[in-house]
Each structure stands twice: as C-alpha cells, then as structure tokens.
Structures
1.
Amino acid sequence: MTIMVNELTYLNETASQTAGPYVHIGLAPKQAGFDIFHKNFTSVLAGPKTKGEKIRIEGQVFDGSGTPLRDVLIEIWQANAAGKYNHPADRQNKPVDKSFRGWGRGCSDFDTGVYAFDTIKPGAVMGRNNRPMAPHVNFWIVARGINIGLSTRMYFSDETAANAKDPVLNLIEWEVRRKTLIAVREARKGQVVYRFDIRLQGPDETVFFDV
Amino acid sequence: MKPTTWPYGEFYQRNRAQHPPALTPAYKTSVLRSPQKSLISLQNSLSEITGPVFSHDELGPLDNDLIMNYAKEGLPIGERIIVHGYVFDENARPVRNALVEVWQANAGGRYRHKKDTYIAPIDPNFGGCGRMLTDDDGHYVYRTIKPGPYPWRNYVNDWRPAHIHYSISGTGFAQRLITQMYFEGDPLIATCPILRSIPTESAVRQLIAPLDRNAGVQLDSLAYRFDIVLRGSRATWFENPVLSEGAMARE
C-alpha cells in the first residue's frame, strides 16, 4: 500500500501578465493624456531637502532590433545617501532621510524612448554575509511584450573599487557582461547625469536577475 | 533563536513554471522584447526584501471609485460592478497596506489613452483607472464599469477578453507584480494569446474572477471576486544572512 503524505498548503503566486500598451492609464495617467488623481507618483525622487549628490539617471530601453521602446514603464528603488532603505526591514544602524522614499516611477517618452529619474546617488548597503554592496539602484521594467517584469540593477561608473568587490556583480560569471549594469557618469551643464541604456536582446543584452 | 513573527525575510524562490516565459511567439510583441540569456539567480539582500511604503494620504477619496472618479456631466455607460478580493502571500497571510492599482477599457472596449485609436467611443465620464491600499485583512474593493472586449493587432482577428489590469506593490520590491483579471464566463478567454502564454491551467484559472453574488449591491451592482497571491517570505527562525550581524542595527 502506498502511504500518502499530507499536502503542504502553500498558495501559488498569481501569474504575471504583460503590462500592455496602455500601462500609463493606470500607473502614469498624465502621460496617457489626462488628469485624474490629485497626487501622482513620479520620476522625481529627490526633493530640496534630500541629502546627497543630486543626479539624473537617463537612458533608453532597446528591443532586439535596436529600436527604443517608447511604451516602457520603469520603477526604481534605492537606498538614501547614507546607504539605508526607507523600510522597516532595513535595520542597519544608519539614518533614514525623511525627505527621501527612494522609489520612483517613470515612462519612456512616446517619441524618443528616453526615460529619466531625478534622484540622489545612493550610499553602499550591507549585503548578505556582511559583504557590502557597491552603491546601486534597483530597476523593474515592464511593457507591452514583456510577460513578466524584468529586474536588474544599475551601478555607477565612478565606483570602480566598490564595483570590483560587489558580491552581485561578481556573481556574473561572464565578466564582459558586468559592464551592462554600469551607468556612465557625465556632466551636462552643471548637472550630473548617469546614462543607463538597457538592451533586452543581442550581444550586449543587459543582465537581468531572477530575484 | 526563537521563532519570530517578524514579517520580513527572504522571499521564496519564484516558481517560474507558473508564469509565462519571456518568449511566447503567439504573442508577437514578445519576440523582440524577451531576454534570450538566462536570468542570473540572486539570493535576496536588503535590496530585494525592502520596497516602497505607501500611505493613505497619497490617495484621494474617489481613487477606488471608477464610476465617480472621472464623472463630469453624468455617470459612465455600462454594467456597474464591484470588484473585491484579498491580497495574500504564499503562506496565506494577508498582505497589509499593499498598493493595488487598476486600469481598464470602458464598456465599449476603448481606453482613454493617446495611443488607442479603436473605433469605439471614449466615454466622457470614464477615466478607467483607480487605486487603493489593502486593509488589515489584506482586503481591497473598488467600483467600476465592466470593460468591453476589443480587437488588437496580433493575428488580424485577435480579440482580448474583457479584463482589468492590476499592478500590486507588496512589502518588498521583489514581490512587484503586474497581471490581468478576467471575468467568469467570457468565451474569448479560451483563445487569448496573452492569457494562453501562462503554461498551467491552474495558473490561468487563478486569473479568472468568479461572479460573487453575495458581495453585490441589490438592485445596483453585481460583484466579482479576485484574490491575488504575492510571493511569500521565509520566517527568520534561524540566523538569516540577510538580516543578521552587520546588516542589523548594533543595538
């Protein structure tokens, strides 16, 4: 006789579906072309009181033909200038910056495909097993034709020493692919801009993570 | 270390067999937008288990009432419905204060969007979006008009079943999810290339909201029930490398 065991009663995560071409209606209605909410979630993370170096992150997301996506929606999540996430699970002994949630939502421009976030450069956060992570910004990318949101990280080109020791970058076996996660710093009319292009396919396909 | 109910831990590995793969050729747009290299598997750090926290003062009083939140000179046309449900994690615990955002076409299947050029008219009294936070039981509710099906250019005679788009933000950024809710009894469900991108029958069924006669308002609105499950997290029964030592406050 076969003895059956009791089944474990975990629920199954709800399946993902594409955000579709009209994602802006729900998540960025102003971009869809109308006004409905009093307060909107935006791509501006840093306010006048936010501590840290003010930066702009901008770039494009390219498909397998090299064409920029003009309907992509991106969310970013990052630590503050001290390297602390504004969240109760972050128990590092570092200050929270009350003027900085660390989260933003932006869309690519309907004509150019350029997205941009105005934020501050994050500090380093402690990683697993007490190995510090280099400063980075977490990205989540959805669009028509993307069946499940893509997760990646953006690192900073001026953090060479920290990047070399970063436990996540070092997980990427192919060193040549690590550079796909490093945004290039440039100065533009007194503003610091990090250019971060994302490639969904091709020889320079961005590294995406299963988090 | 004694068991704790502290609700933040590493998320369970995502079961990708329940999700559509990146490349689903019958949904043509996925062909050039699907990464071709393997995802790099990452154990969670603070970057994944934390995420944005939202508050009620960021939302307006009509944000979960799509019948009223864009009504200009009258009410929107269509079937009045209530949609409600619970947001759970895989441990069947309620996810509190989750941000649930919804968007949809109007009763004729037309979106209020610059890029939608379908022949069905815009409803001057319908915006088509709403948002809410789950309560302490993980419950959410909104009122709306049942969206219509509409044609889309994939194969030339493809039609989307009536659906409402959902975006859910839980406690951690790695729980972030976008999905779509469908309606019980819709004959277009069986042939939708987007819905059929999901590999298992049970995961498809989980996206179809049953009619919930008890939750409606008599002589006013029918109701549909749609529960959502986000990734569950590991309890911190043992030393957790994400949260221990240097990653914790030196209290």
Note: The CA atoms of residues 53 and 62 of chain A lie 28 Å apart.
2.
Amino acid sequence: MVTTHATDTRTKLIRIFTFLGGIYFFLYFVLPESAVASLGMKAHHEQISNGFIVIGAMALGLGLYNIVRAHGARVVFQRSGWFNSLALLIGLVAMIGATSAQWIENLRNTRDIRSVQVLGEFATRIVEDAKSPPTDRVVPPFAERVSALVRYGEDRVSLIESHTNVSVDAGTNGASSALVGEVRDRIATTRVKLGELKTVSWDQPSDESLSRLTQFSQDAAKLASSYSIIKRSHDAHSTSQKVYDFLFDGLFNQLGSAMFALLGVYIAAAAYRAFRVRTIESGLMMTAAVIVMLGQISFGKEIYEHMPSIRQWLLEVPNSAAFRAIRLGAGVAGLMLAIRMWLSIESKSFSSGRK
Amino acid sequence: MGGRRLIYLLMILAVGLPIVFGISQKPSRLVSAERMYDVVEQVRAQPGEVAMVWFDFGPNTIAENEPQAQVLIEHLFRRRIPVVLLSQYQQAERFLTKIPNEVAKRLESEMPGQQWRYGEAWVNAGFRPGGSIFIQSMVNAADVSKFLGRDVNGMPISHYPNFSAIGGVERVKLVGEITGLVGVFDNIIQFFQKNDYRPTIVHGCTSITIPEAYIFLDSGQLKGLLEGIAGAAWYSEVLKAHFPGSENKELLVTNTALSAAHIVLILLIVLGNIVPLFERRRANHG
C-alpha cells in the first residue's frame, strides 16, 4: 500500500516536471522577445538552460552505471558472452584512465602557462593603477608592487628555462628547434628587462618608469605565448598522451572505421542480388541512382559530359520535393509525439503496466 | 557463396588498387562545393569576429568528414579568419585537436615564416553537451566568449586576444557544420538563429545524407555544401586553383578509389539484372 502511494507520488512529480519543462521552452520559443523579458524569463534563461544541460549530462553517469551493472554481473556470474563483457569493461576503464590522466596533465600545464601569463597582466595592472589609483580597493605602494613583480618574474623565467631545457634535452620533444630558439630569445629579453626594472628608482611613478613597465608587459605576453606552445608540444609527447593516442587512434578509430567500411561490401552484394528492375518505378529508381553515382565520381564526365548537371537537377528538383514531403510528414508525427510526451500520455511507465 | 566472395574481392580491388598505387583522377565538378568556396571567400571578419565550426563526427565517418573538415579549416586559416571549434558529439573530441594542428603544420611548412598558432588562429571549445538547449542559450548569450567559458585546456577563452570579446552571436560570421548525423545538423539549422540574425551556414555531410541536405541548400538556409569525399575533393581542387601551394594528394587518391568502387557497384547492378535474364532464358530453352 505504502509502495503504491510512493509510486503514484513519483509518477505525479514526473508528470508535473515534464509539463513545466515543456511549457517553459514552448513559451520561450513562441512568445515575442518583449513578452519573454517582461515575464522575467530572459534574465534567467541561461541558468535554466544550464540546469537542463546538467540534467542531460547526468544521463552519461546513468549510462556508465548501467553498463558496469549489466556487464559486471555477466562477468561475475560468468553468464553467456561474459568474455565480451569483460573486454568492454577493460576498454571502458582503460579509456577513462587514459583520458583522466591526460586531462589532469592538461590542467597542470594550463596552470603553469597561466602563471606566466599573469606576469604581463600584473605589470599592466600596476601601470593602470598608477595612472588612475583605484578607489574601491587598497593597493600596496608602487615600489612594493614593482619589487614583487621582479621577484615573481625571475621565478617564472627560471621555470620556463627549466621546462625549455627539458624539451631540448629530450630532443625538443616535438617542439621545433626554431620554437625553442624563439623561447630562449624571449627569455633573454625578459631577463634583460627584469634587470632594467631593478636599476630604476620606483618611489614614485614617472612617465619613464611606466613606459618601461608597459614594455615589460608586452615582452612578458610574448614570452607567455611562446611558452604555451612549447609546453603544449611537450604535452603532445607525454606518456598519458601516447596511451590515449594508442587507444583512440590505434584501436577505437580503426575499429569504428572498419565497422562502417563493412557497409560498402554489403551494399555491393545487395546491389547485385536485390536491385532488380521488375517495375517502371524500380527502373526509374535505378536510372536515378546510376546517374547520381556517375555524376559524383571522377569518371562520370568522361562517360557523358553533362552527367554532373543532370545529377544536380535530380538532387535539386525531384529529390528536394520528395524529401520535403517526407520531412513534413515526419515533422507532424514528431509534433504529435512531443505533445503526447509533454502531457505524459505516451510513456507506459507513467501510466499502465505498474498497477 | 562463391559469388559473394567474388563481389567482396572486386570491391577490395576497386578500393585498394588506387590507394596502393597512388592513382588519382581529377574529381567531378560539384557546384555546391564551389558555392561553399565562394561563401567562405566572401566572409569579411573584422577584429573580434569569428567563424564557428562544429565537428560532429566520430571514427565511423572520418573517411568522409575528416577531409571536409581539413579543406574548410585550411581555407579559413589561409584567410586568417579566427575559428572557434566545438562539437555536440563526444566522439569528435579528438578531431577538434588533431585536424587544426595538422592543417597549421602543413600551412607553416608551405609558407615558412608564417604562423598559425593555437589561441590566435583557433580555439578549441571542446565537446558541449545539451544539443539544441546549448545552442539556444549560446545564441541568446550577451557574449559568446564568456558563455563558452573555458577552452579544452581549461584556459578562459576570453583570455586569447582574437577571442577575448566576441560579443553577441551576430559576430559569428560563418557557421560550419561537419557531420553525418542528421539530428545534430538539424539543431544548427533550427536553433542557431534569432530575431535579427540569420547566420551563413555551410555544411559537410556524408554521402548518405546528401539528399536531405539538398532541401536546405535549395531553400537558402545552407549557403554551401560539401557532398561526401567528392565534395571535399572538388573543394580541394578549387583551393588549389586559387592557392597553388595547396595540395591534398591523399584526398584525390581516396576519391579515385571511391569512384572505382562506384563503377564496380554500377556494373554489379547491371549484371544483377542481366544475369537472371540469361539464366531464365537458358532454363526456358533447356
């Protein structure tokens, strides 16, 4: 009795949320922009849409759970086909592991690159604050900020140098020697600029000091740009990337392509065995198919000069007319299905079959 | 059984021989690909304006979709139009990284001294779940860079100078959709628009979806179309005519192999209709 009550409540909740979700997007799509804004929908649309995207993304987790549950049980109890399930689970774990390792490495690299990009941005901010002191926040004295900039700059330049040397020692690790040379030139320039910043008195901002800081900011931005490329090139030859490449390019890509390529062979067999001209309609269909194929291939023009033009006409006129009719019919059917789903009268799980 | 094996062998030879011996023929002229070339050529991107290209394909259709993606990206790179790459299809993630990198390397070796770098020539916004809801939200966002947030490396997209302030979707000057999936293509056609904005959409489709794509080309919702490998091959020829350094020999060989397979297919259809006739006649005489 309690279970039935809980099921009824859940069914009602699902129906209510389905209806509200459907009516929201329907109204947002059909109402004029002014009406959408006055109802307050425009202001919150991005957040609401993101909410729906998050719910949709949950399906991935649900799918993952179902795969592990269904195939895990088959492996554990050694049911028929358990070996295929094991292969699937190993593939799943290997791909998740490789992708996660690559993702973590990517984030680490991004953090390093970002820490270098901050250098130029910091210099720019010091100049901006010196020109028009901020009123909404307290900033340390000018000299103190420049001193911090120099210290941080030296630290980052050393980091880039060590990473660049690693790339050179490992045979540039994918980064071209020109790129390594470019990074080294920029390191040298930035070091010189940092040295110059140390020699200037920074008690009060002057035009000359601000100009030097601006110049330093531009040099630091160039260094960060080159560094990001060398870092990504290095990343492309990391172990996690190699494992990912092997799994995706070496296995998944090839198996996926092979599966699709089999279609070509089946179509050839079907063309010989089943494409028989027995009626006028099938004759028309075969003629159209042959013309479209000949019009698209390299040899078609050599058979008949106007073959591509005839193909074009077939696709633009009779084909478009037929496909529009099909799409129109499918569209009306889709609309009916959507209305039935919106009102929760389509799915059996909402209504019958439970009681 | 024997007949089927012979058919399989014929297909393998038709596809394999041109690839093994590197035989290439000039592809057939396709008007839809020429229209697409003209459309990309006419794009005038002011600073801050971008092209947005969706790679919505996986390993199963790379034979057709990858060459299409390559020629479109090559053309956009040659024209120095900043490209935002993204996908509605999770299996495309790898190609979002690989294809622009390869094209950039090829162009850099063709034109020493010139550079196409990540963050300047293109950004990779990665796989975006949500399909039509995601597109509707992006179209209505005040700033596309902020809406997309971070790139695939976790870096804020607004941090890259060419993509720092794209602004509203009106600043997307060209939308490219490379896919063999009709559903994701429909998402772009239906939802990548708003009251006062209709984007210029170009599309690369697989051969099987050409008939469906033509209705949008005919209505003007699509401005250009790459029809399977043949479309990419002709686009590549047009590119070569305008940029003599551009060459994609592999694509032409693949297209020739496919053409040979089509010829075999046509012969099989003809044989499939003639042989039973002879057999019936022989049986009647017997």
Note: Chain B touches chain A through 69 residues (CB under 8 Å).
3.
Amino acid sequence: MGIVKDLLKGLAVTGRTMIGTITGRELVTRPYPHVKREKPQRFHGRHVLNRYPDGMEKCIGCELCAGACPAECIYVRGKENDIDNPVSPGERFGYVYEINMLRCIFCGLCVEACPTEAITMTHLFEMSTTNREDGIYTKDELLMSPDGKVPHMFPDDPLADLGELDTADGWVRATAPGGRAAYQGVRMWAGTPGVGDWSPEPSQEERDRRSGDG
Amino acid sequence: MSDTRIVDFWVAGTEEPEFQPTDEGMQEIGPEDSGRRLDEQYGRVVDDDYVFDDEVPDEERMILNMGPQHPSTHGVLRLQVELEGEIIRRSKPIIGYLHTGMEKTGEQLSFMQGPTNVTRMDYLSPLHNELAYSLAVERLLDIEVPPRAQAIRVLMTELNRISSHLVALATNGMDIGAISMMIYGFRDREMILEFFEKTTGLRMNHNYIRPGGVAVDLHPGWKDDIDRILKEIPKKVEDYHNLLTNNPIWQARTVGVGVITAEEAVGYSITGPPLRAAGVEWDIRKVFPYSGIEQYEFDVVTGDNGDVFDRYRVRIDEIVESLKIVEQVTDSMPKGDYRVDDNKVTPPPRQRIDESMEALIHHFKIYTEGFRVPAGETYVAVESPRGELGCYIVSDGGARPYRMHVRAPSFYNLQGLPIAMADSIVADTVATIASMDPVMGDVDR
C-alpha cells in the first residue's frame, strides 16, 4: 500500500501542474513571437549611438569602447571636426563606427567605458540575419536620427517590436556610480539621454526597502 | 538587355604558379603513434589502471563508444565502455571535444576584461567562476572589498548555486526518465534567472563580479524578488520530494547505483556533492571561507552511501541550505560602497569624470590598459555547485595574467566515472553521468 501511496503523491504533483497549466494559473510559457515578455530595465540588447538634444553626436571617437571590448568587435576611427560644421561638440567625432554583432558578447563593457554616454544598449535582441554581412552594424544602423528614433534593421517585419529600440536602456552602466554609495541616486553629468529617458536610480536606502515596509 | 560583357583578359606575368606539393602540414606517424597507441585511440583496446577479473574470453567483450554526440552525456563527453553482455566492466571518459583554450584566452585579456572570459567556462554557475577569478586578483592586489560587495557576492553565488542545482536535478530526472522533473527544474530556475537579469542585465555570462567589487548595485526592489524566491522555492522542493525522493521507481533506479566510497572520492580528488554524498564533510565555504560567508549559518549536507540517490539528496538539501544563506544575507545586507574606493583598480564614478581631470585619466587608463597587478602567484578556491573551483593566477606585474589556470571541479569529478560505473549495467550509465553533474565547458575550458 505504501508504494501506491508514494506513487500517487508524485502523480498528484504532475496532475496539479497539468490542471494549472490547462487553466492558465500556472502557465509559465507564452506564444513567443506574438507575445513578448517584459524585459528588465538593465537588459543588454543591441547597441545604439546617441545624440545630444541639439542633434550633435555624442561619440567623440576616443576608441575607449574598442579598447575595452574583450571580443574585439568594435572598430572606431576618429576624425577632426570641421569647425564650421561640427558633428560633435569637441574636437573629434566618430568617423567610422562598426560593431560586429556576430562577435559581440553583450558584456556591456563598451557602455561602461564610454566617457560621453554615446553608446548604450537597447532592448532589441532579435538580430538574426540571413547573411553574415548584415551582422556588421555600421554607423548608419547604430546612430539614432536627430529626432531620437533609431533605425530598425527590419522595420517591415510584422513580428518585430519597434518599441524595443525606444525603451532602450543601459543607463545603469553608462552612468555608473562606480561603486560609491554616495553617488547613487544622483543624476550623472550629461543628463541628456538619447534613447529612452533615463531617470536616476534610487538611493541605497530606497533600493534596499521592501515594498511592504511603508 | 544589358550590354555588359565579361571579358577574360590575360596580363603577362600573372600566371598562377603551377601547384607544387610541399610537405607542409604533413605528419609523420612515429612509432609512438602506431600500434598499441593507435589501437587505443580507435577504441580497439581500452587500457587503464582498473583491475578486473580477466576470465571472460575476448569475444564476449564489446567496446562501445557512447557520445560525444549523445544527448545524455551533458555536452560532448565521449565514453568508451567495455561491455560484457549488459555489464560495464571498464569505462573511460574521453574529453577535449569542447576545448576552446579559454585559459589561454585569459592571458590575452586584461584583469578588467577577465571576468567576461571566465564566466563562460562553467556556464551553469557563471558567478562562481567570476568570484574565484576576482578573489585571486584581489589577493594579488592585496585589497579588501567593501562589506556590501561581499554580501552581494555571497547572495548572488548562493542563488546561482540554487539555479545550478535545479538544472542538475532537472537533467538527472530527464536522463532517468522523469521528464516532469526536467520541466519543473527549468521552470523554477527561471525565477532565479529573472533575478539575475534584473540585477546584471544578462541571464548567464554576467560579467558581474569584478576584481574590486561588483559591477552594479542590486536593482531597486530586489528584496521583494528575494522574498518571492524564498517563498516559492521551498514549496517546489516539497514537490520534488513528493515527485522523486519518495517515489519507489526513482529509488529503484538510483539507490545503490554508481557508488563512490569516501576513500575513492578522496583518492580521486572528487569534490562537491559527489564527495559529500560519500559522507565526507568537506565544503570550501566552511574550510576556507571566502567573501565573509563565515558570518552566515548553514549546515554542510552529507550523504551516507555515495550513490546516485545520495548525490541527488545532497543537491536538493543544499538548495534549502543556500536559501538559508540567502535569507540571512538579505536581512543583514550592509549599506555602503559596492566597489573598492581605489581609482587604480576600479573606474571612478561617472560624475567625477566631468569634475576632475585625474578621474578622467584614471577612467581612460583602466579601460585601455587595465590595472597592473603586482607580480606573484596565488590560488583561491570557492565552493561552486560542482565542487572546489579554484583559480590560479600568475602575474608578472603587468595588466594581464601571465598564466591563468582554473581548477575545474567537473574535470576532477568526471575522473570518478570509471569507478562509479564499474560492474554496473548499461542502463545505469546515464544515471551515473547525470549524478556527477559535469559541465563540459568546465571540463575542457
């Protein structure tokens, strides 16, 4: 009798889960390409090159991102700005900017390294292509237009969520307090985010509070 | 119609040279590569130090290759088993099919970039890899990370242990035929991966624990997520007990199967759950505490027989113990910095770049050259879900390790397979492999 009882106990678990799945109470999957999950704020997705609100490019062509990249997938060449018609504030701008997305490991070190918050990450992660050349993103694909929109690689795809490029983030790393508690909750210097409006993360007291703790 | 024509023109002096075969790339088969060695490589002869009764005539023995593409070998493990009917007399794990030279890659990456590399070794417990690497670098640098960073490290690695054990239970169940367990294990692991994703932005290969602290602070509202994990996982563990632990079919498949005794386990340098299942109370967290884990109360779970069932029980109980640590860390999370305040090691806060030229110089220096680590060598071990995960770093005073070696627990545990599988039946092979929980990325590195 004991064996039957133990078996029934196990079957009760599977039975309960089965009923929960049929009724939808315990359903954990979703029909993916049609229904997409909500991605957390710090999600590491496709990169984007930001602009200042006045339309100037943030990238200054310093190549720090290329130096920090452990996969060596970023290629940057800087060029002197034309004084009469500057592309970015300062002396130089990113003349060539290419990211080989086939090599990128999405570690976020480029975002941390960038001194001007020019490169951040978006929530877009569907980047599969049918040929390898499309995996190399040039400045045309990465740079946002002056009105704040980021070009999508496949804007005609009915399943593509164009909003993923707008809900972009990566600001946590881009505006890192560098581990100092005193700098948490402080709006960092640029204050002019490109893609996705960035509000400062809460201070440590607020961050460590439970929602039930009043 | 197009007027384009393809003209094949010829320029003098650009003829393709006639193909001259060279001996480049040729390999001479030396005497050591022929005969018996070749027989071993092709599997015609199995040679190891395992002693067995040689009474059965040769024609009743069969050498069978299992893997490297077998779905139940947890990756690309190849097993050469010598069968006598249904009984495995000898077996030999053959590894190297996933060798990607990550230790060598680690010599090309600076200490700042290193965690992105080591986190890909044991892909089921990436944070433990990062922790071992960071602790080794910090010991060479002789710096003390702030208490909050230590607490975050303990919190994240213990959560990682739960998620890794959940996968171990899931795959163990799947290999024996309990498919429900696989689905439940992966389903419940999702809760922890979501927490990781909220904190680090990635589900695996986080690049989160760095030399000097952690990359970013925990996300706002992390305590609510931990509360949910602490509430849900014990319920799920109760379900696993109902589903498997007391299940007579599960017991029939696992009890007394793949036994490794305490002496054998110690002799083969087996660590982690397989060692503790044999009854040896050895846990790096207790013996060589790291990251302030000694402040938290937890028990070292041990088994009695060292069989598949005990290894399963040890894992399932370690989930509960890890939850205890997670709860204590959550309640006692200290406030303060989460990286060392040393601009030679960690980049300055973003705001400082605008204010201070020195901060900008430090920022550029760290992200281009990296930071220099004093010359020396060190070995630091942490208790990964699979056992003692150690990182041995030799520095020559530069910004990159001169040599990095990782003592991968899966590699050592895998060497126990031949003794665990000797004289067992073929049907138990998969159960035994799954109970050792090898991660081939960890074995081959």
Note: Residues 47-54+101-195 of chain A form one domain.
4.
Amino acid sequence: MALRTEELILNLGPQHPSTHGVLRMIVTLEGENIVEVAPDIGYLHSSVEKMMEYRTYVQSVSLADRGMDYLAALANEEALLRAVETLGGITVPERAQWLRVIFLELQRIASHLVWLGTWGADLGATTMFLWCFREREKVLDLFERATGGRLHHVYFRPGGVCDDIPDGWVEQALAFCDEFPGRIAEYEGLFTANPIFEVRTKGVGVLPRDVAVNLGASGPVARASGIAFDVRKAFPYEKYAEVEFDIPVQQAGDCFARYQVRVEEMRQSTRIIRQAIAKLPPGEIRAPKIPITLRLPKGEVYTRTESPRGDLGVYLVSEGEEHPYRVKIRAPAFSNLYALSEMMRGWKIADVIAILGSVDIVLSDVDR
Amino acid sequence: MPDQERSQPGGQGDGSLRVSTATPIDRLVEMIDLLPGGSVILSSVEQVLNWGRASSVWALGFGLACCAIEMMAAAAGRFDMDRIGTFFRGTPRQADLIIVSGRCTIKMAPIVRRLYEQIPEPKYVISMGSCATCGGPFYYDNYSILKGIDTIIPVDVYVPGCPPRPEALYEGILKLQEKIKKEPFLRRRAGVAAS
C-alpha cells in the first residue's frame, strides 16, 4: 500500500527575521519540496502615489524618500525629479549633475551593502552583517555631512541639489574610494570561495533568461540571468554617458550569480565616483528661478532610472497645476518579486530564505 | 594572599600558581570580608530583580519600514546594542520588548497586535519614529497607514525622528530601563496595589 501524502501549506511572515520586511509567503510544500510560492504583498502599502497628487513637486521629494524604496532614497528622488525636470524642461547645472551621479553611486553602494549584510545574516554569517554595516556607516557619514540625513536626505531638488558639498568632503569620499575595494576583497574572501556558501547558493534558484525577460525582471536579478541591460548605459541620464563603467553580467542566473553581479557593481560604483569627483566642475548647483510651487505644463511623461534594485520608472501626468494629476511608479522590486515563485519552484524549504534574500526586495518599493 | 606573590610577573613555568595582576574584584571580595557583616548586601528583592530585568531587555527582531534599517544599524558594529543588554530574538516568546519601527498599515495592524499579545508578561513597547508614533508624514490624505501604533497597543516610550538616529533609539531604550527599574514588579505580581 502506498504511503498517503498530503500537501502542506506553510505561512512564512509577515513577521519573520529573514523576510526583509513584511512580506508574507504562502508556501505549498510536498514534504521538503516546494510546489508553489504565493507572495502576499500590501503590508506596507503607504499610498504615496495618491499622496503625491495632493503635494507640490518639492514636497513630493520627501515622500519619494520614505514611501518608495527606503534603502535607496536618493535613487527615488532622482527618479521622481527626472520626470519633473523632463516635463518642465528644466536644465540642471553641470555641477549638480555630477553631484547627483556621485550621490547616486554612493547610494548604490550603501544599498548593496545592506543587501549583502542581511543576506549574509540570513545564511548564517553574522560576520558579513557586521562588516557590511561597518562600511555602510562610512557612506552614511558622507551622506550626513553633505545632506544632513543618514537615511532620508531630501537632497535633490527640482533643478539641482539643495546644498553644495562641504569643505573636505571630496577628500573624505576619495579616502573611502581608496579603502573600499580592499573591503570588497574581504567580503569575497569570506564568501566567494567558501564551500558552505557555494553549496547553498551555486545552482540554487535559477532564473532562466527567457523567464526573466517575460516577467519584466530588471537590475541585478536580470543581469545575473544574462541580460546585459542597464538604464545607465541604455538610456543615459545625468552624466552617466560621460563616465566609463562596465555592466557586470553573469549567465548562470542562480543566487551565486546575483551575488557576483552586486559585488562587481559596488566596484564599478567606486570607479564612477572617482571619475565623477575628478570631473566635478565649479559653478552653480541649482537652476535659477525655480519657484517653490513649481507648475509643470500640461502633458505626460515616462522616465526611467537605474535604482540599486533595477529599472525604476515614473509616469507623471500634469494638468498644469502645482501638483501632479497622477504619478505612477514602476517599482523594480515589484517586478522582481514576481520572479520569486519561478525561482523557488522545485527547491527545498531550506533554500527559500537564500533565494528570497538573493532577489533583494524592499517591501516599501513593492507596495509603495 | 600576600601582595608580593600577587605581583610576581608571569608566573608560568616556575611551578607557582598563575595569578592575574589585574583583578580588582578579588580585592573587593577581600575588602568585603574584612568589614563586619560585609558579605551581606542590603537591598530590596524587587530592586535586584528590576536591575536584572532592566539590564537585559531582549527585543523582538521585527522591522516594519525605514526605521528598521536604523534599528539594524543600532545593532551593528558602530553602535552595538548588545552593550546595553538589548539584542534581537526571532520569536515573540523570547522577547520582552517590541520596537515598532516604522509605519504600520491597517493590513499589518492585527499582526502587530498579535505579536504584542504573544510576548509573555512583563512586556514593553517602544514606538520608534514619527510614523509609529502618530502616522508621521503619512498623516494627511492617506487611507492605508495607521495613525499611531498606540491606537492598538500600549506604548511605553516614544522615540521621535524620521527616522530616529541609532543614538535616539539608545536614549529610548535607556529611558525604558529607567522605567523598568522603578516598577513595583513583585507587588504588582502579588496583586498588591501600588501606592
């Protein structure tokens, strides 16, 4: 007589030490094997898209910090202001554009460090958590000196940036750029050749290239599946056309490839920061005569930027008022989350956390 | 033990007992023994218990939004929350404290409430950040965010900021420790009304 088995439904989250926020996953199991994963989102829906309809554009910047991807506040500001500046025909001064490039790349490093640290902690390496946060504090020191905030900056404004960088900031940033590649080598020394880490990540949670395209995955998740697409290269904004950097691409599509892509991205970001600091011209940091209650002409615009999580787009409709008629945010983490059930199907329950962590979702970005 | 013996450097290899030269606690015990009745420390049982409880407040590892990142930063290397006896546990059954870090949506509210109820007594709540305290920047024109966590669970300490710096969270935990130290813990357990 055959043994009768039953499918088991396991509820993971919203409170779980390793779900990176308030994600709930309904995992259908057959023994140890995962049959289906259904993410339940909406536990952090903060309705920023609706709130922006009642705010002026300058006020919306602070909402973009908090309501969208909170690990990459400056990338959100950039995404929103790209739309505002494109529709309003505002030209950002040279110096402000370079400053934005520097800060966006610092933000990318800070965000990837949080990802690497928390993922390491999920996999049982608390060392990685402590190391990554050690370097992240140095990036936050740079942010704090220039913008006044550690996490939420409200530094970019329509037509430029809020304040110029203080004296000695450039030297501090360069010192960080000198130190950081050595630190990345330290992380790789802990993880890349670590047999435990390899067993848990290599070949685990494979996302094939065609599936990644169909699901609209972007950013490091897509690049680890062999899609060499980066908005910074494909549709350059600010000064990204004038700096040299490579897009790291891996073909494997597994957790290890996603790790490799992100670590290499941190190196490339350091490279961009160095070039941007070398090319930083003196001059204005904000376009003149931008009123606080900025009115955009009637029309609509869709702009895209590369946030640390991928292709972050903003669709903005203006009716000629001082506030937008509609703002739609195309969040990269939301699209990447859909790849999750594809990645997890057929793997063991112990791989759930490793795969989830490797996608690097931020629930604030998913739910908005 | 005579002083000369204690101050001998090294001590290994020559057969004598290896004694550390830097043990003030040994001296303290010696001094206490010399005092009449010195080995007795007078204090109320409640005070000792409260001292122990306040010095090891274990928090539930539970993050909601942006403030959770600052909470993590407070637990990491530079700030190192273990110094003041707080570290994170994965389950509410092992926690004394829930730090509500960030905005709580109406969908999330029943879960926060359940987590709070799962923590064994005595339990404490820190509301971290403006969103948890009053809704913060999501107070107006918003249909999804709870306007303050104190509408569903009792809060002991409010930490202001958006998000609060790790130092501010520290201040909040130290304030909570002060509060715990003053509590009539045993009397309340025994059902005696606090005067």
Note: The helical segments of chain B are 3-6, 24-34, 45-55, 66-75, 109-118, 129-134, 166-181, 185-189.
